[in-house]
Amino acid sequence: MTTLEEVFININDDLHNTEKSGKFGTVNGSEGTSLKGTAEKDVAVENHNQSGSFEVDKDSADGEEGEYLVRGSGCCTTVQASIIKRWNIYKRDYCGFICQVISPLILIFLGLLLSSGPSKLHQSPPKFLSTAFYPQQRIMLNEYPTYEDAAHTMPVADMWENFPNKTDFDVTWTNTSDYFQMYDEFYEFRNEEPLFPYRYGSYQVFQADNVTQQWQVYNYLNITSQDVTAFYPQWMYQTILRTATGNPDFTFNITTTPFPVFYAFKAREQAARTLDYVFMLSIALALIPCVVVSFILNEREKQLKHQQLISGMSMFGYWAANVISDIVASFVPILLIILLNYAFSSDTPYGWMFLCLYPLAVIPFSYITSFIFTDDTSAQICTLFLHFLAGGAFTAVIYVLQLLPITANLGDTLRYFGLIFPSFCVTHAFILSKDLPTLVKTRAGAISDQPDLDLMEWPDDEWAWFNLKADLVALIVHFCFGLIVLGIIESPLFDACKDCACCDKATDRDVMDMDEDMTEAERLYDERRKKMGAKALFRGGSGLADTAASGLVA
C-alpha cells in the first residue's frame, strides 16, 4: 500500500469518527460528503505536525451555509510535503536503489578496469642472434660451390667446420650443381616428413675462394619465422669470417634491437579502451532515468497523480517536487562515479562537469518521453535501450566514422544529431577528453593524404564548438527546454487531448476503479472550483499534511 492510499484511508476513517461523535454535525445526504457545522463562527484548526497552520472557514456566500473549507497551504508547503513523500518511498525502494546506484557503480568499476589496465603492447627486448634459438635444426648444403675454380675453390665441408655451434644442426648434403634443380631439392627437403623439427633455412654456396677472398652464398629461408631473415645470414657471415681469417675462434656477434611500438598500434589500443569505457558508462547512465520514469508511470498508471490533483495539489507543485527529488537522487550515483574516476586517475579532466550536468538534462527529458508510454514496464525497457543506443552505440558509430577519411564528413554531420540525447552528450565528451589528440592527428594525416575529400580540419582546442562546447551547451539547453516543454504539455493548451492514452485521465470516468468517497470528493471539488476559482482545498488534521502532498474537501 502506498503512502497516498494510507492518507485517504486515514481521512475516511477520521470523517467516519467525526460523524459518529457529532463534532461537525450530520452528513447531508443530498450534498454527499459535505459536512454541516453547528457553529456560526470560524474555527481555527492547528496542525501540530508541521510548521504551518490551516484555517477552517465557514463559507456562506455561495448559499451552502455550514460547509467548512480547509485552506491556507502555500505552494512551498505542498512541495515540501511531496518531497517528504518521495523520500519515504525512496527509502523503501530497494530495487530502485540497486538499479540507480549499485548497478551503475559496478558497471563503471568494470569499465575503469578495462580502460586503465596495463597495455598489451610491449617493447620487445634486444635479441642476441644465437643458434640456440633454433636447436636441432635440419638444413641442406651443396657439397661443392656452384661456381668452381679448380685452383682456388674449397669444399663446402671445410667451411662447415667453422659454422657456429654446428652440433646444433643436422646437415643433408647434395651434389647438385644446377641452380633450378637445387631450388627444387630445397623445397622438397623442407616438406619431407617428419616435419618436426621444422626447416627454417638452407644454404647454396655459389663461390668459396680462400685465395681471392671471393665468397657468395644464397640463403633459402622459411619466413614463417620472422627471425630467420636475421639469424641464418648472420651465422653464414661468421662462418665465412672464420674461414677467411683461419681463426676458428673468431667471433662476430650481432644483437638486434626492435623498433619501438608504432604510434598507430598505440592509437588503436587507446581507441579500443575508450570505447570499452564508454560502453560501460552508457549502460550505467541509462539505468538512472529508468528509475525516474518508473515512478512517474507508476503514479500515472495507478491514478495517484490524478488523485493528488483533484485533492488540491497544483500541477506546478507536483512537478517541482518530482524534479527536485529526482535530481537529488540522481546525484548520488553521479558523485560516486566521479569519485571512482578520480580514484582510477582517469584522464578525463572535464568529465566531472558533464556528469554533474547529466541529471539536470536527463530528468526533464525523461519526463517528456514518459508521456509516450502507458505502462511502467515498457517505459523502463524503452528508456534503457534509448539511452544505451544513443550514448553507447551511436557514440561509437560516430567515433569510427570520424576516424575513417572516406566517412569523416558524414560523421561530422551526424555528430550534431546526437545532441538530441543527453546521454550522447556525456559519452561523446568523454571520448573527446580521452582521444582528442588522436582524432586531431588522424584528421590532419587524412587531409594531407587525400586532399580531394575536402575534409574539415579538426580543432585542437578542447573547448572549441566542434569539441566539448557543443555538448556542454546541449546539456544546459536540455534542462531549460525540457522544463518549458513539460510546462506546455501540462498547461491548459493541451486540455483538448486529456482523454488520450498518454495522459493522466486515460480511462473513462465510469470505469475508473475508485471508491465512492473519492468520486464524490472529485464531484464536490469540481462544483466548488466553478464557484470559488482555483483554490487549494485542504483538510486540517493531525499528521496528514506532513504525510501527503495533498488534502481533501472536508
Sequence-ordered SSE layout with sheet pairings:
Layout: H1 3-21, E1 43-45, E2 54-59, E3 67-71, H2 75-92, H3 94-116, E4 127-128, E5 137-142, H4 156-160, E6 169-174, H5 179-190, E7 201-209, E8 214-221, H6 228-245, E9 255-256, H7 263-301, H8 304-310, H9 315-343, H10 351-370, H11 376-403, H12 408-417, H13 422-449, H14 465-489, H15 516-532
Parallel strand pairs: 5-6
Antiparallel strand pairs: 1-2, 2-3, 4-9, 7-8
Describe this structure in words.
This protein has 554 residues and is mostly helical. The protein has three domains: 3-73 and 513-532, no CATH class; 80-119 and 274-497, no CATH class; 127-256, no CATH class. 54% of the residues lie in helices and 8% in strands. The chain contains 15 helices and nine strands. The strands form four sheets. Strands 1-2-3 form a three-stranded antiparallel β-sheet, with no helix packed on it. A hairpin with a 4-residue loop joins strand 7 (201-209) and strand 8 (214-221). Helix 7 (263-301) packs antiparallel against helix 13 (422-449) and helix 11 runs antiparallel to helix 12 (408-417). The radius of gyration is 42 Å and the shape is elongated.
Class by SSE composition: mainly alpha
Poorly predicted parts: 23-72, 501-514, 533-554
The shape is elongated
| Percent helix | 40-55%
Question: Number of helix segments?
Answer: 15
Q: What is the number of E strands?
A: 9
What integer value in Å does the Rg equal?
Answer: 42 Å
Strand order of the largest sheet: 1-2-3
Let me know the largest β-sheet: 3 strands, antiparallel
